[in-house]
Structure formats: structure tokens, C-alpha cells
Amino acid sequence: MLSKKLEKALNNQICIEAESSQVYLSMASWAEIKGLEGIAGFMYMHSDEERQHMLKLVKYVNERGGHALISELKAPKTDFGNFQSMFQELYDHEIFVSKSINELVHVTLEEKDYATHNFLQWYVAEQIEEEALARTILDKINLIGNDKGGLYLFDRDVMQITADSAATDPNV
Ligand code: FEO
After folding, report:
1. CA 149 to centroid of ligand 1, rounded, Å
2. Which of 5, 20, 115, 148 is deepest in the core (most CB within 10 A)?
């Protein structure tokens, strides 16, 4: 049985994952209307992943005798300016999510809930991967600068990253 404190913290994370899914969905839609097909595909996939992260938490909370609460979500912004700053926002957002997961892990230790501690290790590992991927993409962006041909190739590259992770990630 989850403690009330941990149940509340897990429900907060459910909200964060759901909002993350909305943020990336909004990025996907923005990229799509700008003709950035590869980037849009990447963001659609990322949005789906966040929904899976959210669902996994919902199932876990209910399985442990809690009540997963589906709450109202903050509306994401709809205009991201340019693709460079959009990916910077994605990176910053993942850093925020990692901090939140770390705080959640801290609560499991305070509450001596080792089952939940164990369950959350999947999220800890996932955040390392997501941050690394976002950093790799930002490095590529720095390399291409404002070169239009570079942007075309970058968009193709991101499309490939999406295809690769769809092929290897069982959680997509
Ligand atoms: Fe579920 Fe990208 O954090």
C-alpha cells in the first residue's frame, strides 16, 4: 500500500508526464506546419512515449492500492519560434523532468517504500537516455548553424533517429 505522501507525489508525476506529452505534441504540430517532416515525426513519437510514461505510473499507483488521478493539464505554447530554440526547450524540459523524478525517488526513501524505489529506476534510466539524446541533437544543431542545406540534412537525420528508436524501444 502506498503512503499518502508517496501517492500524492506519484500523482504529481502523472500530471508532469501528461503535460510533457502535450508539450511535444504541440511541438510536433508546429514542426509539421513548417514543413519539418523529420522533426515533426520525432516530436510525435516523443509525445507518444510520454503518454506511455504517464500510463505506466497510472497502472502502478492503482496496482499498489492508490488512486491515480487524471487531472486538468496546462496548455502548452503553440509557437516555438525556430527549431533551434524548440530543441533547447525540449532539453530544458527533460532536465526539469529528471529533477522531478529524482525528488520522487527521494520520497520513496523517506517513506521506506523500496518497491516503488525499484519501480522508479526505469524512469531514472530513461531520463539519462532522453537527456543524452537531446544533447546529441543540440550538438548537431550547433554544427549546422543557419545553413539551409544543413537544415534539410538535419531534418532527415532526426527522421532516422525516430526510425531507429521506434525499432529498438519496446515502450513506443
Ligand atoms: Fe517522461 Fe521525457 O520524460
Report:
1. 31
2. 20
Classify burial at 146, counting beta carbons within 10 Å of its beta carbon; exposed 0-12, middle 13-18, buried 19 or more. exposed
pLDDT of residue 92: 98
Ligand 1 nearest-atom number relative to CA 17: 1
Residue 7 Cβ inside 6 Å of ligand 1? The answer reads no
Ligand 1: which residue has its CA nearest to atom 1? Answer: 50
Q: Is 53 in the pocket of ligand 1 (CB under 6 A)?
A: yes
pLDDT tens for each residue of 69-117: 999 999 999 999 999 999 999 999 999 999 999 999 999 999 999 999 9
- Structurally, how many domains does the chain consist of? 1
Residues spanned by the domain of 137: 4-168
Cell triple for residue 130? Answer: 532522453
Ligand 1 centroid from CA 53, angstroms: 7
CATH code assigned at 91: 1.20.1260.10
